[in-house]
Amino acid sequence: MNLYKNVRLFWRKRHTDEFKAIQRPRLMQWRREPSIIRIDRPTRIDRARALGYRAKSGYIISRIKIRRGGRRMSRPVRGRTGKRLATSDITPGRNLRAIAETRISRKYMNLEVLGSYWVGQDGRSKWFEVIMVDPVHANINNDHRISWIRSKNHRRRAFRGLTSAGKKGRGLHRKGKGAEKARPSNRAHGNRNK
């Protein structure tokens, strides 16, 4: 059994005492840090490598904290004027991982999001690590495995739902029977034959 498989199995068994002994002080430190912070190396090396991360210049890893949950304010049930009917919904059809990727993209405007993965959560927040790529870096241009990200089709891909988390929110992880309305998009399907 190699190193990556051991790490993967360790992260699957999150209820063991060994995992909690490592994760609890880690979350205590992350709560004191800023919401978005750049880190030197991935916390889950197996997941990062599976998503395409390589330990060389041109690849950047950042950790982001997202508040959990959907609505923050319940809708009033008694008589109100229109001004007091506001409800806030921070997850408009997207998962928290896709929201994390777009927030990271706004902070690092010159980088493209390659993928992301979960690294921790408590009762209030979730933490994700986002893998980003510099599309104009020489290492990226010369690597045939990642040079596809330079094309115009992948520009600002986190905002357009082209990452894995974005495609999940668009319903594109399903294929075949039952998923006829998902492609090319929900909006395009609604405009067909009109």
Topology as a string of helices (H) and strands (E): HHEHEHEEHHH
Structural class: alpha+beta
Total count of strands:
4
Q: pLDDT under 50 segments (min length 5)? A: none
The residue-averaged pLDDT reads 90
Radius of gyration: 20 Å
Query: Assembly state here?
Result: single chain
Distance between the termini: 57 Å
Strand content: 15-25%
Biggest β-sheet: count, sense, barrel? Answer: 4 strands, antiparallel
Strand order of the largest sheet: 1-2-4-3
Report the total helices. Answer: 7
Helix content: 25-40%
Shape label: globular
Walkthrough of the structure:
The chain contains 7 helices and 4 strands. The protein is α+β, with helices and mostly antiparallel strands. It is globular. It starts with a helix and ends with a helix. The mean pLDDT is 90.
